[in-house]
Structures are given as C-alpha cells and as structure tokens.
Write a structure and sequence with these properties.
With 201 residues, the chain is of the alpha+beta class. It contains 8 helices and 4 strands, in the order E-H-E-H-E-E-H-H-H-H-H-H. The protein has 2 domains: 73 residues, Glutaredoxin; 109 residues, Up-down Bundle (Glutathione S-transferase Yfyf (Class Pi), Chain A, domain 2), CATH 1.20.1050.10. Helix 1 crosses helix 6 and helix 1 crosses helix 8. The longest helix has 30 residues. It is globular. The two termini are 22 Å apart. Bound molecules: glutathione (GSH).
C-alpha cells in the first residue's frame, strides 16, 4: 500500500486526491513539515513524501505525475500533444496560482518574522487574480481543462483554489471559473479526500 507522509492540510492533499481518483488504498502518516521524520526522507523537510515500496518520492507534481503514469489514468500519455497541453496547465498552476499563494504564505507564517515582507501580500493577490483571468481565457468548453478528460492538471488547479479560500484570496463566485472549481469540488474523490482529512484532524 502507498504511504503518504505529511500534514494533510497542505500539498499532501494533491497526492491524496490523486490516489482517491485512482481508487488506490493509502496510509496517511501525518508528520509535520521540517520534522525529524520528514527530514529523514526529504533533506528539505518539505511535504508531501510518497513511499512506494522501497522508493521515496518527493514534490507533489512529480508524485501525482508518477501515479497517473503508473496507473494509466488522469493523464494523457507522455510524448503526445495532449500531454504537452496538460503539462502546460500544470505548469501554469504551479507558476501563476501556487507561486502567488506560496509567496504570500512564506511572508505571512513560513519565513522567520524578521525576514518576512508582509507588504507583498496585496501583490500576490493581484498576481493570483491575473492568473484566474488567464485561466478563464484558457478554459475551453470543459468540463475540465483538458476537455472531457479529468487530469492531474485539474487536481493541481483545484487544490490551489482551495488553498486560496483558506488564504482569503478573492475568487469569482460565478462565471466559468467558479463553475469549473465547483465541478472539481463536486467529484466524489474530492469528498473522499476531505473526509479522510477530517478523520486525521
Ligand atoms: N515543490 C514541493 C513544495 C513542497 C512544500 O513546500 N510543501 C510545504 C507544505 S505544503 C512545506 O513542506 N513547507 C515547509 C517549508 O517550506 O519549510 C511540492 O510541490 O511538493
């Protein structure tokens, strides 16, 4: 069985959501980032970490990509135009959605207080808003970013939307982007992941 390591209210959710979509059982081991247990697996102390047999894997996008490729679901095959477009959405999510959220988080509670630049938060909110406008332009007829096929790109984008709610970043309450986020959250796998989160809290 897969072992997912890390405090679940974090990028660990991306790995849990992927495993729920795949219907793969997993053990969730809720260690905090930078804990001794996590540092023993990942020198940066960052979570999530996935253990698959003897292999220790880090970095949520790499983990989700590995799982999708391995199980042949939630992804277009490597070396196809579909995969290049899917990866472009994933990269967009990491650069433009996550980048803004993570910079705000680091300057709110991750970095030591004496080096935080709290004035950066409105800049991050503005960047996030611009990224949502780009997403609206890039969204096709849906229902997902890759059309009829739900992929890990939707998981990374959907996770950023949930993160934005917690971080109190503005998001549209109606329109195509809001409808898309609601569709992602309506998936049974998302509900199963949230239930598992509550169990662990
Ligand atoms: N690129 C990594 C980033 C992992 C990451 O920064 N995780 C956060 C929690 S969501 C963390 O461990 N933060 C602790 C720290 O930055 O020291 C990924 O996507 O997994």
């Amino acid at each position: 069985m897969y072992k997912v390591i890390g405090h679940p209210q974090s990028r660990v959710m991306r790995v849990m959501w992927t495993l729920e979509e795949l219907g793969e059982p997993y053990e969730l081991i809720p260690h905090n980032p930078r804990s001794e247990e996590v540092r023993a697996l990942n020198p940066s102390g960052k979570i999530p970490v996935l253990i698959d047999g003897d292999a220790v894997l880090t970095d949520s996008v790499a983990i989700c990509t590995y799982l999708a490729d391995k199980h042949g679901k939630l992804t277009f095959p490597a070396g196809t135009i579909g995969r290049a477009r899917q990866d472009s959405f994933t990269q967009f999510a990491v650069d433009e959605l996550e980048g803004a959220l993570w910079t705000a988080a680091k300057n709110s509670f991750i970095h030591p207080e004496d080096i935080r630049v709290t004035a950066i938060k409105p800049v991050c909110k503005r960047e996030f808003d611009t990224a949502l406008k780009t997403l609206e332009k890039r969204l096709g007829d849906g229902p997902f970013v890759m059309g009829d096929t739900f992929t890990i790109a939707d998981i990374i984008i959907g996770h950023c939307s949930g993160w934005a709610m917690v971080a109190k970043f503005d998001q549209p309450s109606e329109g195509p982007v809001a409808d898309y986020f609601n569709r992602l959250r309506a998936r049974p796998s998302f509900g199963a992941m949230m239930a598992r989160l509550k169990e662990t809290a």
